[in-house]
Amino acid sequence: MYGQTEHCIDSKMALTRLACILVLLSTHCYFNVLAVILRTTNDAPWANEFESIELSCLIESISTNDPRIEWKKIKDGEPSYVYFEKKISGDLEGRARIREPATLVITNATRSDSASYRCEVTAPIDQKTFDEILINLVVRVKPVVPKCAVPKSVPVGKAAELRCVEDEGFPKSQYQWFRNKEEIPDDPKTSPKFFNSSYTLNAETGTLKFSAVRKDDSGEYFCRAKNDAGHSECVPQTMEVYNINIAGIILGVLVVVVVLLCITVGICCAYKRGYFVSQKQTGNNYKAPAKGDGVDYVRTEDEGDFRHKSSFVI
Predict the structure, then answer these.
(1) How much is the pTM?
(2) For the segment 259-280, what is each residue's pLDDT rounded down to a tens digit?
(3) Centroid of chain to Cα 301
(4) What is the pairing mode between strands 296-299 and 207-210?
């Protein structure tokens, strides 16, 4: 009798435990089913310009059969719809589509598409009626051909600056310089070919500065702008490093001095010989005597010869 009673008690306890487990399971499932939950496979995707890219928005659980799905683009803190009322709109109109249930596919990404995108799902029947995920998209842009400035000729020992600029690439371009198709290292001491060169290379700004050029620095230079999307190069330009001809400069100065001395001596000699003295009186500018004696003077054809015309006043 006692054994049967104990067996009944154990059976009741087992049934109670089973009932509790079933209640817990049903409660857990109840809350799972009545809560809309989203997830994404990649919250920071990237694509090269003009390629396609997916912004995944996956619905893990939901009870509502026809939830409201919206996508918003957030740039500079300002949100705008790109998917609303089951239609692509805004910047993505004609370039995107929705892949069920809520993934946004951009078929032709442009640089202006770099922004944050928010997937929002509203499920009125669920106990948790709303969920959202944020995805940050980066569209990489290949650099265009950079603008390069290389001096054509520089005297030995003088400073020289080579510049390279490119503003279209995204992310921001990094720069490399090449001489005779060989990359110039950031530190000249790391390469035997550039060990004796004195320069600084800034990969951020694209400037290559020589503090004092050498003959070995002559050659063809070009710059490469690069980022994660690709690279572009400018046309090679020649920089010539030449020696200053000191003897030629001195000879030129001496020639100029000799020419100036000859001109000065010539002018002095001309003054001494009277070539620059003006004659004060000639036969043509002889001044006739003043009238007052009652005689009219008439000039003859012969230079300097005058005769008087009788004219007496009584």
Answers:
(1) 0.63
(2) 888 888 778 887 777 776 655 4
(3) 90
(4) unpaired
